[in-house]
Amino acid sequence: MISSYFKYTVMFILLVLIQILILNQVQFSGYINPFMYILFILLLPVNTPAYALLILAFLIGITIDLFSNSMGIHASASVFVAYIRPAVIRIISVRGDEIDNFPGLLQNKFSWFLTYTSIIVAIHHFILFYLEVFSFSGFFNTLLRVILSSIFSIFIIVLSQFIIFRK
Amino acid sequence: MRSLLRYFIKNYAFVLFLLLEAISIALVFKYNAYHKAMYLNTANRVSGTVYESFITVKNYFRLARINKLLAEENTRLRSLTGYSREPLEVNEIIENIDAEGGIYRYTSAMVINNSVNRPFNYITINKGAKHGIKPDQAIITHNGIVGVTLKVSDSYSLAMSVLNGRWSISAKIKKNNYFGSLVWESGDYRTASLKEIPIHVDIAKGDTVVTSGFSAIFPEGLTIGTIGDFHQADGDNYYNITLALGADFKSLSYVEVIDNPDRDEVWELEKISP
User: Fold this and answer.
1) Are B20 and A69 in contact (CB < 8 Å)?
2) Which end of chain A is more exposed for a tag (fewer CB within 10 A), N or C?
3) Does ipTM top 0.85?
């Protein structure tokens, strides 16, 4: 139990640092900005109580906000995906399908993890980018940014599962 | 009442969700509504230190490039002052100063955090109040303007980049002094648009666009960029001009902050006239 607290604390710090120091500096063509920190919300154990899920999501969101001069938008998007996460897991898990308590890639089927990540990332990015521009003018331009960035984030998150967060 | 309470306890997750979401949205609204500088944070000690220690590593890999830029800048300055012409006469210097309306003070600084792909981009630099930086000072590089300082802490400052849809800059075409306003609409970090240049004005690709000096923040005549492309929409009295920005926002490293000591006086005057 203690070791799992420790593991998630390290993951929190690591993901925030990766996000602000590396991914926020990687800027392709003004459209793509991957957000990997959602991995923290994705990987919390399935049986995490709802209050912990929401508060942790709020914390990581507001931390990213503090470092990227975007008060509230990351917090808001993160809290939203944290709230719908249990429902998403319920919907995409076929009955009788054993879902591991730890929703990582190695514990579950690849297709399950990919669907899970894609849904959460797409919703998160959608909220994030529209809150950021704060208007529906240039709707399709923003939508393009949502789609491109989502693809990139999903790619990075799935890739990271093969490289680091193996346990 | 009791059943309401029971409902809340049963659905505490939803209530908590609403609460946290309300806090976040309130922050977004506040940030959008008023002078955002209050909520901008990368100039504080913690994030400033994190970014600065990271940038020292990053800059190590850019040393060759930075050296080249500095060498070019040296060459340019030398050609302006010493070797290529007679030394300036004392009177000439004074005249120059008078013509520009004041003595600007320059401070060199290093960019420690910067973005180009958000709709509202900001820059953090490693000089702050104790180095004499104040809010509303211009930031430039040798090949173009970069932004304006917003919020200053002891040793760091946060600046609004030109690549920020929340503001516009008064600019003019160097060769004929027609002025318009420069705005950046999200997308490309290499271009911005110049608005309000009437269609009778003679312009051509490659014309230099400089600051107009109307704002008291930017001195007059600083390079912004060159005209990249322009066309005239049907029935419109103004050109749509796309400007190629001079400064390379993606690889900003060393910048200069300009202090105009007369700025407050200018603002005081402008406040009086309606």
Assistant:
1) no
2) N
3) no
Number of helical H runs and strand E runs in chain A = 6, 0
Q: Kindly state whether B15 is in contact with chain A, defined as any CB-CB distance less than 8 angstroms.
A: no
pLDDT number for residue B61 = 79
Q: Whole-angstrom Cα distance, residue B272 to residue B274?
A: 6
Strands B169-173 and B208-211: antiparallel
CB-CB under 8 Å, B50 with A67? yes
Name the amino acid, one letter, at A16: V
Q: Which residue among B17, B25, B116 sits closest to A30, beta carbon to beta carbon?
A: B116
Measured distance CA(B142)–CA(B247) in Å, rounded: 8
| Closest chain B residue to A29, measured at CA | B188
* Chain A contact present for B59, CB below 8 A: no
As a residue count, chain B comes to 274
Q: Which is nearest to B125 in space by CA: B155, B105, B84, B81?
A: B155
CB contact under 8 A, B20 and A50: no
Please choose, from the candidates A148, A145, A60, A121, the residue with its C-alpha nearest in 3D space to the C-alpha of residue B118.
A145
Q: Which residues of A touch B54 (CB under 8 A)?
A: 21
> Is pLDDT above 60 for B269?
yes
CA distance B39 to chain A (A): 7
Q: Is the pLDDT of residue A42 over 70?
A: yes
DSSP string, B203-238: --TT-EEEE-S-SSSSPTT-EEEEEEEEEE-TT-SB
Each residue's pLDDT tens digit, A76-134: 999 999 999 989 988 888 765 666 677 877 777 888 889 999 999 999 999 998 888 77
Instruction: Express each pLDDT in B195-211 by its tens digit.
Output: 888 888 888 888 899 98
- pLDDT (tens digit per residue) in B78-89: 766 655 445 555
Tokens of B63: 């040393």
